[in-house]
């Protein structure tokens, strides 16, 4: 069941847009659909989506320009480009601009579904690592909101659990404060929230690190963010 996953469809062709809505809603996704780049810009500004299906050739603002703007503004939502046959250069440009994948029209709906699920597994920590997993030397139980350290159960908050999931799903990759805030708090970060992220990391370290002042699990990457260094 995918009822908690929201997808934005940006497609100006009514037949394709309608078909995508019906197909994805049948598979229990929550779907929003818009038909031009300006509507897409507003939708992403006002709402948070788990994935965006973005047509390249759009009225008002092109898909390429939208992708560029969103990535420059720090949006990390996965984007699958929808391209017409023969737009090879546009596909390459789209990937260079930060799109996660592309499909060429006409495309198989089942193939699109497989690509959507694959990207969500890569980008959604809950799908990637599950509810119970190893994090360094720790055993993590997300559903039980606890970690086991040296045989001792330590309760963690929901936000702390989401932070651990995010790091566990992205080993050895630097995660910026902006990305972490977006994934855990579900909204874009402003300058005030920078301190919020740091305080929550410090609190989490106090629970899971043998020495919070010399962390070995969640390391600070100065000026950028944090990284889980797996062995």
Query: Which residues sit in consecutive blocks of at least 5 with pLDDT less than 50?
Result: none
Succession of helices and strands: EHEHEHEHEHHEEEEHEHHEE
- CATH class category name of the largest domain: Alpha Beta
Overall number of structural domains: 2
Main attributes?
2 domains; 231 residues; elongated; Rossmann fold; alpha/beta; single chain; Arc Repressor Mutant, subunit A
Written account of the structure:
With 231 residues, the chain is α/β, with parallel strands linked by helices. The protein has two domains: 118 residues, Rossmann fold (3-Layer(aba) Sandwich); 96 residues, Winged helix-like DNA-binding domain superfamily/Winged helix DNA-binding domain (Arc Repressor Mutant, subunit A). 44% of the residues lie in helices and 23% in strands. The chain has nine helices and twelve strands. The strands form three sheets. Strands 2-1-3-4-5 form a five-stranded parallel sheet, sandwiched between helices. The chain has a four-stranded antiparallel sheet with strand order 6-7-8-9, covered by helices on one side. The two termini are 34 Å apart. The model has no long low-confidence stretch (mean pLDDT 86).
């Amino acid at each position: 069941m995918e009822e908690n996953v929201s997808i934005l469809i940006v497609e100006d062709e009514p037949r394709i847009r309608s078909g995508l809505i019906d197909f994805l809603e049948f598979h229990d996704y929550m779907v929003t659909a818009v038909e031009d780049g300006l509507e897409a810009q507003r939708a992403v500004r006002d709402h948070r989506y788990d994935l965006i299906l973005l047509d390249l050739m759009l009225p008002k603002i092109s898909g390429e320009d939208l992708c560029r703007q969103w990535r420059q503004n720090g949006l990390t939502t996965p984007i699958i480009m929808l391209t017409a046959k023969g737009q090879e250069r546009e596909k390459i440009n789209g990937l260079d601009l930060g799109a996660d994948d592309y499909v060429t029209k006409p495309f198989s709906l089942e193939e699109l579904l497989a690509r959507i699920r694959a990207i969500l597994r890569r980008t959604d920590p809950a799908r990637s690592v599950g509810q119970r997993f190893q994090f360094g030397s720790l055993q993590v139980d997300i559903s039980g909101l606890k970690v086991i350290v040296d045989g001792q159960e330590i309760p963690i908050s929901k936000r702390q659990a989401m932070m651990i999931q995010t790091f566990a799903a992205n080993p050895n990759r630097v995660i910026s404060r902006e990305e972490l805030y977006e994934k855990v708090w579900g909204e874009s970060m402003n300058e005030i929230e920078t301190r919020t992220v740091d305080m929550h990391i410090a609190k989490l370290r106090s629970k899971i690190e043998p020495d919070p002042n010399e962390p070995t699990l969640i390391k600070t990457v100065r000026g950028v963010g944090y990284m889980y260094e797996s062995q």
